[in-house]
Amino acid sequence: MSKLTTGFLGCVHDKCLILVNLNRTVESSKRVFGRFLYAQAMQGKYAVQAAQGPRGEQGRRPFPYSLYRFICSEIRKGDMLCRNSQSFPGKVGSRQSKTKNGKEQNNMICKKLTSKERPTFPRRAVITAGMPYGNKNLHFGHVGGMFIHADIFARFLRDRIGKDNVIFLSGTDCYGSPIMESYRRLQEAGYEGTLEDYVRGNHEDQKKTLENYGISLDFFGASALGEAGSIHRQVSAEVFRTLYKNGYIRKMTMPQFYDEEKKVFLNGRQVTGKCPIPGCTSEKAYADECSAGHQFLPSELIGPVSSLSGKKPVLKDVENWYFDLEYCIDTVKKYNDFLRKNTNTRKYQLETVEEFLKKPFLYVPRKYIVDLAELAAKLPPHKLTDEEKKPSVVFAFENLDDRDQAKNVLDAEGIHYTSGKTLVPFRLSGNVEWGVPFPECEGLKDLTFWVWPESLWAPISFTLACLKAQGKEADLSRWWYDEEAKVYQFIGEDNIYFYAIAQTGLFTGLQVPKGEVPDMETVHLSHIIANRHLLYMDTKASSSSECKPPMADELLDYYTKDQLRMHFMSLGLSSKSAGFKPQVFMNEEEKNGVDMVLKDGNLITNVFNRLIRTCFYGIQNNCEGRIPRGDVSEQIRLMTEKAVLDYERYMYNHEFHRISYVLDDFIRGVNRHWVNNVKIADATNDGEFRKQLIIDCLYACKVMAILIHPIAPEGCEMFREYLNLGEELWDWNAILEPVSFYIADLENHQLKYLEPRVDFFKKHDSQLMEL
Ligand SMILES: [Zn+2]
């Protein structure tokens, strides 16, 4: 650490320069600081981190935002990486920029923050929202449980890191047996279109619904259709070849259900039964997974029934390609531990992953065991846990082969058992006709990819398709495999196994050949954000349940998208499930208290609307429609700064419900400030006092609009229009600047005239009629 000049502490950290402003005025800082930085940046030497001393410590002033913005613009001239942070040099960067082997540590973009630290966002970001399956349109859970959260984050990042640095994508998951199965039923009911017509229709409907909710996808593809579909077929073949070359793939014979009456192999959803995982509460299980996301082998399914004939199917051996997921158990475990220690990955999500990372267990109920020692002697090497109070004894095996051998022994003895969660080989291929063709290899042909694995790399295919449309295909690795970029994937908790376990194995396998020990701190993996269940009237929504949940589009007949977006955001879902209880779908006697959708929407449709209007009318009546000149009061400045820093932190941690608390406190707080003080202004008829009040509230409204812009963009855009300002208003680098910052000629800047009773954030027509 070296002292650069009085008032600054500088720290040159490899290729990262960190500077702390101690106690300079803005003007003198600009002079000294700027010249130095500019010289450095032009030499192309350093990425720059501007840091700030903790507030309140003696002799240190907060890092001024105008200075920060100035530095940013200086740095941009040199096209350097710029981040800002609130902690001290030494603390920033100690693990952030480099790892032991000198590679940049991409995971630190998601690092766990210390209490005073401001978050670092990546330079480029891909955001994906879990792919909806192509057999129906979206119900409220797709949109409210995940898409809206992903969209809010994507819109925030566009404002925070620049819109050219964000790609937000999703698409319809088109293939697989469930789609064939629903198409078959539809055909029986008289549908005359092709399978592709059917999927395309659902894809178009999904796209329309997402648009209706303002989901701002840069790309919404379909894994089977058009250009994206053809790119996806190429990417899939490439993924197989790479994994094969890297040694993770093997051919295995496994039993598959076969319907003897219909003379066909049955896939996935064509077989139903009960989940074999102990304690599972799922209503339905299929050939190798249950509705709660458990994975098992077909032979483990309890009471299988064919959906084609209604008969019990038999098991026949078939050969398929498998990914060695059980080989990756240590890798996944190491990675999970790393995430737990260092990143803001959700805790429950890490625990869910952890549960799958146990050695292969078999549980044998005590009542079936005559002589435990005799039985144990017949089994392959294992660790035995025999606790008197437990109804079962537990055998823990080193590997799957040993466990399977043990199963054979138990089967032969007629002893019942259940197996625990563990990693099993991840099937890549199958014989479903409707699938991505699988490359012919080692004499195995006419196979297709199983839909789950190919849907995991579909976002890569979609990124390629999106870039190709802009003529930037070659840029793929800048988005997926770059230290400065991060991929954020929003999913539902049922899919944690696939995205946080199978994908971790697969994507590591694409980057590191088998046998080499991957450094899990530098392998490029997505940041997974799994939302908990969004319940409907307190029950888990599934289209099969009694209480049929509404389709996403139906809700828009009663609420505006902004009201719904505010409400779904406030339900959070980051650590616990929450119930969606729209009163318009309740009987009179079920209604209890206020409709929460309206209540959450009120913050913008009532309070914020009113606050903006009072500012505008105040300026129109007292200042001839021109923004008054003057500094924001200390009270409002501090309040605003706190709201901005809290909001930024919660956004970084994807704690959406907390964002709604921050907004609620901030907007209602400023509104109270207005209401209390305007009375004083009226009573004293003090023009200066009134002017200060207007300056304060307009400033707060401007910041509120930037904060709400990702959540309810249209009303915020309307506010910007009335301010008569450009898109630069949304740039987070200037979020704390006064309104005058954006205006070259304040004296002559005219606000758009606001007519009485204009709403920036609209209510639904049906709600207006009730008034
Ligand atoms: Zn289950």
From TrEMBL:
Q: List the record's Gene Ontology CC terms alphabetically.
A: cytosol
Keyword Ligase in annotation? yes
**Catalytic EC class:** ligase
The EC number(s) attached to this protein equal: 6.1.1.10
The Methionyl/Leucyl tRNA synthetase domain extends over 126-359, 422-592
Q: Which keywords does the record carry?
A: Aminoacyl-tRNA synthetase, ATP-binding, Ligase, Nucleotide-binding, Protein biosynthesis
Q: Which GO terms describe its biological process?
A: methionyl-tRNA aminoacylation
The reply to whether Lipid biosynthesis figures as a keyword in the UniProt entry is no
GO MF terms here are:
ATP binding; methionine-tRNA ligase activity
Top-level division of the source organism's lineage: Bacteria
Query: What PANTHER family does the database record attribute to this sequence?
Result: METHIONINE--TRNA LIGASE (PTHR45765), METHIONINE--TRNA LIGASE, CYTOPLASMIC (PTHR45765:SF1)
> Per the similarity annotation, which family is this?
Belongs to the class-I aminoacyl-tRNA synthetase family. MetG type 1 subfamily.
Protein name in UniProt: Methionine--tRNA ligase
